[in-house]
Amino acid sequence: MAELNNLIDTAREKGSFPTLLKAAEILGLLDKYRNEGPYTVFAPVESAFDPIPDDVIDESFEDHEYLLGIINYHIAKGKYTTEDLKNLNSLETVSGNNLKISSNGGIKVDTARIIESDIECTNGIIHAIDEILVP
């Protein structure tokens, strides 16, 4: 089995999250999510950004406060596997807002479906989701 890596390097190796990683880089969060934890990251795959016009994404990247709010809504302190999530109705994010968790026919976080779960990291876990979460 491959050796586990931190959240950032694991996300980079997966290759499914370039826009999310770009946002983390713009905000100076790479070191934090390489070294701190544990965290659970609900990471939108690249196709989740397809419905959003490029100019809207570019504007979001320029508004660091807004972007940080969005990023922080995708992250919870602690490590929550899908087994853990099945027993929860909500989960507090690092933004202080709560994500709604449901597990009828697969786990959903707010309106996003977890499409790849339990990606283990040295300092947490990643769940790939099919939509961007908005607080």
Q: Can you characterise this structure?
A:
There is one protein chain. This protein is an alpha+beta fold and 135 residues long. It has one domain (7-129): FAS1 domain (Roll), CATH 2.30.180. The chain is built from six helices and seven strands. The protein has helices spanning 7-14, 18-26, 30-35, 54-62, 64-72, 82-86; strands spanning 39-44, 75-77, 90-92, 98-102, 108-109, 112-121, 124-129. The protein has a seven-stranded mixed β-sheet. A hairpin with a 2-residue loop joins strand 6 (112-121) and strand 7. Helix 2 (18-26) packs across helix 5. The longest helix has 9 residues, at 18-26. It starts with 6 loop residues before the first helix and ends in a 6-residue tail after the last strand.
Q: What is the CATH topology assignment?
A: FAS1 domain
SSE arrangement, N to C: HHHEHHEHEEEEE
Query: What oligomerization state is this entry in?
Result: single chain
Q: How many β strands by DSSP?
A: 7
Q: CATH superfamily, called what? A: FAS1 domain
Features:
Fasciclin domain-containing protein; seven-stranded mixed beta sheet; 135 residues; 6 helices; 7 strands; FAS1_dom_sf; globular; single chain; FAS1 domain; Adhesion/Biosynth-related; alpha+beta; FAS1_domain
In short:
The chain has helices spanning 7-14, 18-26, 30-35, 54-62, 64-72, 82-86; strands at 39-44, 75-77, 90-92, 98-102, 108-109, 112-121, 124-129. The protein is of the alpha+beta class.
Topology:
Elements: H1 7-14, H2 18-26, H3 30-35, E1 39-44, H4 54-62, H5 64-72, E2 75-77, H6 82-86, E3 90-92, E4 98-102, E5 108-109, E6 112-121, E7 124-129
Parallel strand pairs: 1-7
Antiparallel strand pairs: 1-2, 3-4, 4-5, 5-6, 6-7
Helix pairs in contact: 2-5
